[in-house]
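FIELD: query
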Amino acid sequence: MSEVLLEVNNLKKYFPITRGFIKSKVGDVKAVDDVSLFIKEGETLGIVGESGCGKSTLGRTLLRLYDATAGEVRFRGKDVLNAPKDQIKELRKEMQIVFQDPYSSLNPRMTVSQIVGEALVEHGLYRKGKELDDYVVEIMNKCGLARYHMNRYPHEFSGGQRQRIGVARALALSPSFIVADEPVSALDVSIQSQVINLFTDLQRELNISYMFISHDLGVVRYISHRVGVMYLGSMVELADKNALFDNSKHPYTQALLSAIPHPDPTMKRDRIILEGDIPSPANPPSGCKFHTRCMYVEDICREEVPEFRDLGGEHFVACHLAK
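FIELD: result
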């Protein structure tokens, strides 16, 4: 079995709500609320859920782009959240991110060679010159870009090509772990498949681990080994992708899966329509956060927070009624 690369225990990220001229704190937006998970070497963990459930905040907090409110993150056994600046700089080589928007995530004043090579110079791995240029070209070729693209600017590329530049930038430092924050959501369907195949090819070649954040359950099933489902800042189900798609245990997961389009238009499916709106993360419901929209709700769901427990075979569920 592969070793655990990244371990997250009871991670929380709250954003303060302030009012008045002196900005006094009146509450918190609980964007990530007590999330625990692990990612093995060479594995892809897919993260899914509705907009605003905390997927992107989770990924950025793991990398310390946001400061965590509480919890623990360990990368190869090293404490990430409390590491000093010099250790964090070393961890940056191992932990990278590909952002969602290929248009706003690239500096329009920098060429492709400058974008891809910037981190290499910053970390002292290369000096500007032919050796750096040759390495940048090597990384670009792995990501489907050619040498003649080096001196071009981001506005000269299509959306798919820009995302390839973003992948090349993340790949330049030879990381072991990449957070892919909805990397194909802004692309055409035909280009999506090319970028997804690029991710899988790089993983097969370099043994990279991914946290792949997406709304598209079809994409997540294709690329992931395990899948985690988030609702209102909390993880409600985490399992092997086949176990989750074929035998989901949480009512929220079942509702999400029922909404996946099927290529056969004559096939009848039992669509689960969730009633009501998503509660505010600033004032989540008591007990199980999903009880206000759950069709199976019982009294215990309104009163007690369900334990995120293993039902067997590393199939974790936060539901009082799951068996």
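FIELD: remark
The mean pLDDT is 91.
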